[in-house]
Amino acid sequence: MTNSAAALPSWQPAALRRHPLVERYLPVAVIVAALIVVWYVAAILMNLSLVRDAFEREETAYTIGELISGTMSAERPLLPAPHQLLAAFLDSVFGYAPTAPRSLVFHSMVTLSATLFGFVLGAILGIGLALMIVHSRVLEKSLLPWIICSQMVPILALAPIFIVVLGAIGLQGLLPKSIISAYLCFFPITIGMVKGFTSPDIMQLELMRTWSATPRQVLWKLRWPAAVPYLFASLKVAITISLIGAIVAELPTGAEAGIGARLLAGSYYGQTIQLWSALLASAVMASGLIGLVGLAERGVARQMGTRP
Amino acid sequence: MASREPKLSIVSEPSASLRPESGDYPSTANVISMSNKDPAALPESSTKRLVVDASNISLSFETADGKVDALSNVSLQIADGEFVSFIGPSGCGKTTMLRVIADLQQPTSGNLLVNGMTAEQARLARSYGYVFQAPALFPWRTIEKNLKLPLEIMGFSETEQQQRAEKYLALVNLNGFERKYPWQLSGGMQQRVSIARALSFDPDLLLMDEPFGALDEIVRDHLNQQLLHLWGTTEKTVLFVTHSIPEAVFLSSKIVVMSPRPGRIIDIIECNFPRDRTLEIRETPEFLKIAHRVREGLRAGHAYDE
Question: In 3D, which of A272, A284, A277, A274 has the Cα closest to residue A115?
């Protein structure tokens, strides 16, 4: 199979269909194509009245063809067409210097730094809490309800409070955003790691007991390595939540930079294309971050001799 | 549960009458009938050090169905260098007895000395190696690293760890598998690793809880021979829990037959085949006689069979 991946053997349809590259990417490509078609149809339907109103306001005659091409190139469409979005996205990514305030790269970096810092804080907090919960019944009973409560309060309500309180004690910029992001993302890590730390089976734990291992040895030689698969599963969830946390934290502060700020400005001024570009940027970032965690996971799994 | 109560008293009779019956084997000089409370019947233990000295061990716990007597007044003495098999039906307390000796469970009452210490002291002094029913290897460690795990925990030096890993892997014929991960080995090989791991820190006592229970007959025979060889070369004291009569008779120098509800010892059979026995002895009359006596004991203990 892998040998034939190098070159297309012939142009017979059957052989082409069985080609590994085709087999692998065809389903995805079909879905993407279908979505784009649906998107175009939706863009035409949603922007139609907008364009018609504009023609009628200017009292010019118009044809159906002009109407439809108008829906594809409106300046502030209800729903931008895919090619409009792509052009705006590419322009704002590559069209400006990465430090310019109009560059999407600049805004992404601002949000990304808060995301990563918050993710690290959240991971440390999450693992720390899981360790405490696993090692003490008292802490489990006293901490767990609060941990769950913390996630029931809507973050949109909490974020302004955090920012104001932290601002009052002189913390501004990156740190408050990171704290909000950490506040959101520690939870899946705690839950996952409690499960992971308690995943060794009784026999493995009893073996450690027969060797009279210290609690610390049990932690480092058994509980930690056993928890690694759970760690990566929860890190994948946590890193996207962390990104959402950072964006949400930018909304109530009237931040001048960051994906959240772009979203806010876009919706203030009806710049739907800018809004969608920012969304696309955050989606690209999220996939990239998950990809990185997945890459780290595969590396660690190889180190730990996991069955492929 | 309640319907079994009256039967219990009936069953205690054949088991009690088993000891006089053992006089039916006068021709077998190797078989010495003995009561564990009778010191005269322990010719060896008077000269050899006692590794396990248990008297009147009882262990009971409450379940939803009422009180369960996992062990009831179990007394047992095991001398240095013996190979003792515990055999009996499920729920007879053979595994519980092993776990009590290993300090993995605490008895409700009774006295127990392991290597002259309490069970807890013996565990803290790392007096025994324990082999479970499953290999329980750590999947993220190579075979060699698995073997070194107890050594790491006990603080052996790096060079000592390496030497011992090589020595004990060779002992169970697994040289060349150092860098493999557990999933790359068969079940029998994995269990051999776990035996090597239990031996690696050179404990006086080896506790084995149905170590070959999950393996097929051929592999089992093979491992039994290897275990006998190990016992012969290392001169450890081995306590071995099993379901299999041939396995028990083939391996042991002493067979403890146990019975459930309550878990108790109903017979202790000496079984002094030479240490370098081969699988062929399983065809000899002596072997069959001991196997027969074990089976009789087991049958007598089966209250709920009728």
Answer: A284
CA of A203 vs chain B CAs: smallest distance (Å)? 6
A211 touches chain B (CB under 8 A): yes
- Record the pTM: 0.79
State how far the alpha carbon of A64 is from the alpha carbons of A55, A74, A199, B10, in Å: 12, 15, 65, 101
CA dihedral of residues A142, A145, A150, A151 (deg, nearest 10) = 150
Q: Give the start-to-end residue ranges of the domains of chain A.
A: 3-78, 104-303
A221 part of contact set with chain B, CB < 8 Å = yes
Token pair of B219 as six digits: 């592999």
Distance in angstroms (rounded) separating the CA atoms of residues B171 and B196: 7
Residue B153 at interface with chain A, using a CB cutoff of 8 Å: yes
The model's pLDDT over A55-93, given as tens digits with 9 standing for 90+, comes to 888 887 888 888 888 888 888 888 899 999 999 999 888
Q: Does A228 touch chain B (CB under 8 A)?
A: yes
Does the pLDDT of residue B197 top 80, yes or no?
A: yes
3-state secondary structure of A2: coil
Of A203, A221, A228, the CB nearest to B149: A221
- The answer to whether the Cβ–Cβ distance between A210 and B129 falls below 8 Å is yes
Say if CB A222 and CB A205 are below 8 A apart. Answer: yes
Judged by CB atoms closer than 8 Å, whether chains meet at B128 and A203 is answered as: no
Q: What is the pLDDT of residues B251-306, one digit of tens each?
A: 888 999 888 888 888 888 888 787 778 877 888 888 888 888 888 888 876 655 44
Residues of B in contact with A202 (CB under 8 A): none
Q: Report the alpha-carbon distance of residue A67 to residue A50 in Å, rounded.
A: 10
Listed by start position, the domains of chain B span 4-127+203-301, 137-202
Contacts of B149 in chain A (CB under 8 A): 211, 221
B4-127+203-301, superfamily in CATH?
A: P-loop containing nucleotide triphosphate hydrolases (3.40.50.300)
Helix and strand counts by DSSP (H, E) for chain B = 9, 9
Give B101→chain A minimum CA distance, Å. Answer: 11
Q: Which residue has the tokens 């800018």?
A: A274
Name the superfamily (CATH) of residues A104-303. Answer: MetI-like (1.10.3720.10)
- Contacting residues of A for B123, CB less than 8 Å apart: 209-210, 212
